[in-house]
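3.2 Worked example (two chains)
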Amino acid sequence: MQIVLDINDAKVLEALQLAEKHNLTLNQFLETLIDKVVVLSTPAETIELDDRTIDATLQQMLTFAVGTDIDKLFKIPDLYATATGKSWKKLSPNTRKALGRRFRKLASEHNRNGSTGDVFIEYQGRNLQHSAMYKARLL
């Protein structure tokens, strides 16, 4: 297919130089860029966890949180990734929200049932990216 594009000369020169640097023709270089844009623009399939799996995952996360360094801040996405070995970004938005809300409730329940000398999980607020921040503490 032939396409005629009206592109700024300076941009075309930059593209030609980059193509040459990578030992590609301009057509090959542009095809590569188009492929990358298509891949980046295609939404990845997300994973939706059912309630039972969420409960099991939360227990796994709580166990891991209780074993973290005392007074070290952590976020739910990082805790999930570390505790499960899976990517937080692959979870559906609904699953992420459910894990976040339910972890906070589980941590509060854990703290109410604990006693002096136990590790408590303390909510520290939210960061600029709106991720909930927690800290493991001894009480």
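3.2.1 Second chain
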Amino acid sequence: MSRLVQVQGERPIFPGNACVHCMRPATQRIEIVKVRGYVVRKVDVPFCEDCIALRRAKSPRQVQFERLATGNSLLLALAAGAWIYTLVRDRGWVWGVLLAVLSALIVFGGMYMLVQPWSSGFRSPETKRVLWAATIRDFDWHTTTLEFGNEEYAERFAQVNRKE
């Protein structure tokens, strides 16, 4: 269950030195970002070492998917390069090789850009919870609305940022 908290301004105050996910002592702040058109809102959120490690962790399924996808992307890029080489080799082997390498790089880069977002679907549930511990839900010129996964932390955050 999540909770929304709206604060005035773009620099909210976080309670004490507590991790936003588990409420243990925070060791580092991680910047979360929300972009709307040309406007960007950035907030530094406190996390402990264990939660930072979980944010960066990859599940075995995610690693396996990335390895398989990288291998397949490489094979597809080599096939595209070979196909391009056979099409243009009559213009000289130098141009054939250059165009083949260029096309292989483009195909591999395109596949890499497709595979990375897909691999995030294989994250572990623990990693997903830590990644969504604090997010910027909405913002405007005067307010920022944050969404917290930990309701106790959200209540403390709301108390600290309450304007009297």
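3.3 Remarks
The first helix runs from residue 49 to 56.
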